[in-house]
Amino acid sequence: MIRNLAFALALASVLGAQGALADPIKRAPSSGPIAISPAVTAPPGSTLVFLSGALPTIDKAAPGTTETQTRSVLDKLEVTLKAEGLSLADVVKATVFLVGDPAKGGELDFAGLNAAWSQRFGTTDQPNKPARSTVKVAGLVAPGALVEIEVVAARAH
Q1: Is the pLDDT of residue 11 over 80?
Q2: pTM of the model
Q3: Beta carbons of 120 and 126 less than 8 angstroms apart
Q4: With contact defined as beta carbons under 8 Å apart, do 30 and 65 qualify?
């Protein structure tokens, strides 16, 4: 009897864990126009992949705008994610570091960031929206860089 009970408990534990692993990543709906989610939950057992901050490719003669640099960074992140068997759809958290744009008197070009961002997140083709924080910084390691983005992606099992 005790042996059967122990087996039943062990089986229930394994089946319960497998059911939890099959849970999808949950993204709280956003209420605003920006393609971000206020909260993202990865189920237990998900594999998290942390990508280092990526900087744009910069032409020294024409460093580009926050929008064009954001597109460049997202392109790089997409390549790195693909190498891990993931895509931008798997991004659950992003941290964006923005430098004030000299062409805008040192003000952040938040609209430029969001214009590029909304082309990759919350679209018909890729509806997933990650949680996101944006931080104003005095400068980045690459001369002329206006944006650096690091992300965390999750793969639910």
Answers
A1: no
A2: 0.84
A3: yes
A4: no
